[in-house]
Target: Biotin transport system permease protein
Amino acid sequence: MLTLYRPGTGWLHRMPAGPKAVMLLALTLGVFLLPPVWWSAVVAAAVAVVAYAVAQLRDGALGMRDLGRQLFGLRWILVVMLASQLLFLGPEPAVANATRVTSGLLLAALLTLTTPTTALLDAVERGLAPLRHLRIDPQRIALLLTITLGTVPVLARIANEVRAAQKARGARANLRTFVVPFLVISLKHADELGEALASRGVR
Model:
């Protein structure tokens, strides 16, 4: 989960972790604050594309190959999210919300792709240091944020593994038969993560 960083020499790799996290967080917040209408989906998608294009990831396709990999990994999560919102909200807000969330996840992935976990932990801990005066432990919050960022690609990997197992058994793509094993494995992962943290004294 904590080995998502990919070494590189682009300007985003060289940028200090703190300012980079603030910049990507501001972009993500801006995307989330867009209204749930059609044009918001276009803007949210454009933000993610431009962010990967200018990140100098050097994947041979101006960042689009890396963007495609991240998007492909998220596809089953997006299917579940879009289907549930289409059912209750209708096409326009469902597409806009799904695109905004996808853009936010892609920006979070860009942060973990270009920042070593230790640098990210240190930056978050330094930024939250003033909270010690309020008896809040910045180290715990930094760990929580880092785990949250790292969990997104883990869920994407679980989704891919579930679908691959279904394909190996000759099962057709079906949302109902996908959701149950995906949730069971995800909850099992959460339990294991909780036990691992507890064994290291994090409660």
Q: What stands out?
A: The longest helix spans residues 138-168.
